[in-house]
Amino acid sequence: ARIAAGASLDGAGTRDVPEQYLLEPIRHRLMLQAEIDWLGALIPRISSPDFSWGPDPDHLLAKRKAHQNG
């Protein structure tokens, strides 16, 4: 997908499309790529058993304990 989007924008440049019409598609492509890169780094981090989600809120712990005790 990244290559296809880049190729179509590159093709627009070779067809003498004025740059003002390419600004938004280029920004969109870069934002999507940044999000893909960020998710690619985030998923392994949060999948790791070493990742700490922090303590559970007290009301959730109480509900869990009540459920376990029947």
Describe the structure.
The chain is mainly alpha-helical. 71% of the residues lie in helices and 0% in strands. Helix 1 packs antiparallel against helix 2. The longest helix has 25 residues. It is rod-shaped and about 70 Å long.
Main attributes of the structure:
single chain; 70 residues; mainly alpha; 3 helices
How is this fold's topology laid out?
Layout: H1 2-14, H2 23-47, H3 58-69
Helix pairs in contact: 1-2
Summarize the model shown.
71% of the residues lie in helices and 0% in strands.
Structural domain tally: 1
* Range of strand content: under 5%
Helix vs. strand class = mainly alpha
Roughly what percent helix?
Answer: over 70%
What is the string of helix and strand elements?
Answer: HHH
Query: How many strands in all?
Result: 0
* Major sheet attributes: none
The low-confidence runs, each spanning 5 or more residues with pLDDT under 50, are none
